[in-house]
Design goal:
single chain, 212 residues, 3 domains, two-stranded antiparallel sheet, 8 helices
Length: 212
């Protein structure tokens, strides 16, 4: 059995996937960053021959933010499992990390438009059953992504602007129909609660949703 090639490289030499469909909101990024700060690096990432990360972009970004400067690169052909061994952990730390790792993965989500474009480029529904299974998608899960119209609808009428705060501060414009629906929700909150500011409650909830 040939001994695998292992080398130490600057973490800055690794490249992020330019069309990554997996995205992380504020909570997901904070969770992954806190995990790296507390437990250190323990999750391997996967790079192609050009050093582009194909699995683990969030981990690479969090590692850079945590101040990690080097990476161990193991050349492999997929015939051996790459195991990251942390002998410095006690049992409780290992258990805590396992939970953190699994939860961090659950907090990430797909950008459906980017994912649809990637799946289309790979052959879409014409792929073999084995290829679909390896991707993790069933035909009935993939079909809506491929058939969806990802072009945003044209706004109609005057726009109402709403200023958001926090990590995603900015301006959101609602067209007349969208704003009427939002006002209807405000009226529903006012009718079912004794809140003094139902509009504030609805807009605060909307802002919180954007921060996810």
């Amino acid at each position: 059995m040939a001994k695998p090639s292992v080398k130490t490289v600057s973490i800055d030499s690794l490249l992020l996937e330019p069309n990554n469909a997996r995205v992380r909101g504020a909570r997901a990024k904070k969770t992954l960053g806190a995990s790296l700060e507390k437990y250190g690096a323990a999750r391997s990432v996967v790079a192609d021959a050009d050093g582009v990360i194909r699995a683990g972009n969030g981990t690479l970004e969090a590692a850079r933010a945590a101040g990690i400067e080097e990476a161990l690169v193991i050349e492999t052909n997929g015939k051996q499992l790459v195991v990251v061994k942390r002998s410095d952990w006690d049992e409780e730390t290992a258990i805590r990390y396992g939970i953190s790792d699994n939860q961090s993965a659950l907090l990430a989500e797909y950008d459906p438009e980017i994912l649809a474009n990637i799946l289309s480029s790979l052959g879409g529904m014409e792929q073999s059953g084995d290829d679909l299974l390896a991707l993790g998608f069933l035909p009935h899960e993939m079909e809506p992504l491929l058939l969806a119209n990802w072009e945003p609808p044209e706004a109609s009428g005057d726009l109402v602007s709403f200023q958001t705060k926090g990590d995603k501060a900015g301006t959101i414009d609602f067209d007349e129909a969208q704003w009427e629906k939002l006002k209807g929700l405000m009226a529903l909150v006012a009718d079912r609660t004794e809140a003094e500011d139902p509009a504030g409650i609805v807009l605060e909830a909307f802002e919180g949703w954007l921060a996810q």
